[in-house]
Amino acid sequence: MKILMIFDQIQAGFGGKENGDLELGGKKMPIGSANMFEKYLSDVDGQIVATLYCGDDFYLSNKELVTKKLVAMTKKIAPDVVICGPAFNYEKYGLMCSEVGYAIEQHTNIPVVAAMSAECTAAIAAHKEDVTIVKMPKKGGIGLTDSLKNILELASLKVENQSIVEFVQKNCY
Fold first, then answer.
1. 77 beta partners
2. Which of 57, 83, 92, 165 has its CA 20 to 30 A from that of 19?
3. Global pTM?
4. Closest Cα partner for 112 from 8, 4, 1, 11?
């Protein structure tokens, strides 16, 4: 299973909130927080083939352009699945995950999994019916290992066209 990650500046490893104006970019390799998934990828025969990233402030100021480019870049990379997140409790990144994830699913045949904590209230309220959002702890919270495994399990279920109803009821918003 070929996985494309979409990160904000923090998860991509390009600094903190002060670098929110980071422009859209990407690398054909796992970067930043992608390493959190490394020890669980073999469970789903997964491989992170690329990471796209954008500062959350840059995204919010250029939503239409960034979303259009992320959809086009996703089509070009042609992964089996896209993971938007983990956004933890970063609300602006949560919005980017849910909005971009929804756009990718609308304009491609590539499934998307988003992930964020309950603190991302605006994203969850606005998009939980549009894109599957895996529950996860806030930054530093308990349960990160389980949520990482859940993100990959849902990605695998979607790629294999398996039923996700029971999984979503138990693990998603």
1. none
2. 83
3. 0.97
4. 4
Q: Taking a C-beta distance cutoff of 8 angstroms, is the pair 147, 85 a contact?
A: no
9-20 average pLDDT score: 96
Residue 141 pLDDT class (50, 70, 90 cuts):
confident
Contacts made by residues 118-121, CB under 8 angstroms, sequence distance 24+: 118/173, 119/89, 119/91, 120/87, 120/89, 120/90, 120/91, 120/93, 120/94, 120/95, 121/91
Residue with tokens 């849902």: 154
How many residues does the structure list for the chain? Answer: 173
Q: How confident is the model at residue 136 (pLDDT cuts 50, 70, 90)?
A: very high
Q: Dihedral through CA 161, CA 3, CA 41, CA 123, nearest 10?
A: -80
